[in-house]
Fold:
Amino acid sequence: MSWHCYLLECADGTLYTGITNDLEKRLAAHNGGTASKYTRSRLPVRQVYAEAHPDRSTASRREAEIKKLSRSAKLALAAESAKN
Structure:
């Protein structure tokens, strides 16, 4: 089973970083208001970045790295991903 680290843009323009083993289901849960307390009040959300990892541990480490980035660095990561 592959894990993913992802970045969402909320309706208010804020960014949310998380991990999951099912991106489609997790995005649906976020937009349904059941995935995260943070995103529940900032709907709708859209996925702007995702990367695959072999296990939960590496996905969690990458999530922590992304959370430490500045907003502009997170947006640059999303923009670079959109080019590919």
